[in-house]
Structures are given as structure tokens and as C-alpha cells.
Automatic annotation (TrEMBL):
Cited function: May play a role in DNA repair. It seems to be involved in an RecBC-independent recombinational process of DNA repair. It may act with RecF and RecO.
Keywords recorded for this protein, A-Z: DNA damage, DNA recombination, DNA repair, Metal-binding, Zinc, Zinc-finger
Pfam families: RecR_C, RecR_HhH, RecR_ZnF, Toprim_4
InterPro entries xrefs: DNA_Rcmb_RecR, Rcmb_RecR, Rcmb_RecR_Znf, TOPRIM_dom, TOPRIM_RecR
Originating species: Hymenobacter negativus
Similarity field: Belongs to the RecR family.
Zinc finger boundaries on the chain: C4-type: 58-73
SMART domains: TOPRIM (SM00493)
Protein's UniProt keywords contain Heme: no
Protein name: Recombination protein RecR
Domain Toprim, residue spans: 81-179
Gene3D superfamilies reported in the protein's UniProt record: 3.40.1360.10, 6.10.250.240, RecR Domain 1 (1.10.8.420)
Length: 204
């Protein structure tokens, strides 16, 4: 692809690094930003920079946050005896959009995947164990809401083995309204909401 300007070529190159953005789409976006008001482009650049450099992660659940503790963990109206374990912050957003869940979360930061070199030590699993085993813990139920892929099932099995001996903490999994091999973030809100409501308690 030939470009009339090296600056446009550089912008297209950076935009096309984003997932789902090809060269043609990147060129269309770059030309749109070039024609837009200067303030519009500057605001976009500032918002992206602030997001990248100022965003942090919740000290409790590891979800994206603007402060040391996220709004969900800091909300006293949420049910802190109920923790939903997910692999990614996108799953938190998907579940929150159902309006069916009023507990709190724990974000693992991925799933166990030997092919990609991701093991249990690379995930926020130890902090979940510590959170559940703490003397002042309110936790009474842990919901494993991990996408039903091969890696997701491996992760859920590993977690169930690590968590099953905790006293007074019940393990459950979301109902299989989510198809095998599916990703939570792509499930419709009704199906995902019912999967949370109809979760199944795991045998110890």
C-alpha cells in the first residue's frame, strides 16, 4: 500500500496493530482523524495516553480501576460473601451488563495454557486463595465463571482442586447456557445472566 505521506503511513502502521483493524480500516481511521477538528484528535490522543499511564488495578480483585480499590469492591451494597472468578476484565463487564449479579469479582488475568507458556503462577490464583482463607473473610461462595474452552476447563479444574478444602466456602460453576468453546464476552446478556442465576454447586 502506497502512502502520500510518511506521517500517514506511520499512523496507519500503529492503528493496524490493534486487534481486528486491517490496513484499509486503519487508513480510513487515520484520514478521518486528519479531517476532524484538531481538538477531536487531541482529545482522543489525550484520553488514550491517560488510560495507558494512569489506569491501575484493584488491590483486591485485580480488575481495572481508577483507584487502589475498584468501585465494585468498595461498594458496601454488593454481596461480599459471593465472589465470581473470571479470567478477564471483559468478563466482568459482560456479567455486569446482565444486571443479574450483585456479588464481587476476582480477575485471574488469563487462563492456564501450557501452549502459550501460561501456568498457575502467572495468574492471580494465590491471591484468591489468600482472600478466601483470610480470618476476616466474608466469603461463603466462589462462582467459577470461566469460558468453557479447553484452557478454561483446565483452569476451573485446577482452581476447584486448590479451593475445595476451604472450610465454609462453597464452589459453584455457571450453568452451561454458554456453549462449549464459547467466550463469555460474546454471550448474549440473557443467556449469561441465567447462567449466573442457575449456577451449579460443585461437589467437594
Amino acid at each position: 500500500m502506497e502512502f502520500p505521506s510518511k506521517l500517514i503511513e506511520n499512523a496507519v502502521g500503529e492503528l493496524s496493530r490493534l486487534p481486528g483493524i486491517g490496513k484499509k480500516t486503519a487508513l480510513r481511521l487515520a484520514l478521518h482523524l486528519l479531517k476532524a477538528e484538531m481538538d477531536t484528535t487531541a482529545s482522543l490522543a489525550e484520553a488514550l495516553a491517560k488510560m495507558r499511564f494512569e489506569i491501575t488495578y484493584c488491590k483486591t480483585c485485580h480488575s481495572i480501576s481508577d483507584a487502589e480499590e475498584c468501585g465494585i469492591c468498595g461498594n458496601k451494597l454488593r454481596d461480599h460473601s459471593l465472589v465470581c472468578v473470571v479470567s478477564d476484565v471483559r468478563d466482568v463487564i459482560a456479567i455486569e451488563n446482565t444486571g443479574q449479579y450483585k456479588g464481587v469479582y476476582h480477575v485471574l488475568g488469563g487462563v492456564i495454557s501450557p501452549i502459550e507458556g501460561i501456568g498457575p503462577a502467572d495468574l492471580h490464583i494465590d491471591s484468591l486463595i489468600e482472600r478466601a482463607a483470610a480470618e476476616d473473610s466474608e466469603l461463603r461462595e466462589i462462582i467459577l465463571a470461566i469460558s468453557p474452552t479447553m484452557e478454561g476447563d483446565t483452569t476451573a479444574f485446577y482452581l476447584s482442586r486448590r479451593l475445595r478444602d476451604l472450610p465454609n466456602v462453597h464452589l459453584s460453576t455457571i450453568a452451561r447456557g454458554i456453549p462449549m468453546g464459547g467466550e463469555l464476552e460474546y454471550a448474549d446478556e440473557i443467556t449469561l445472566g441465567r447462567s449466573i442465576v442457575d449456577r451449579q454447586r460443585q461437589a467437594r
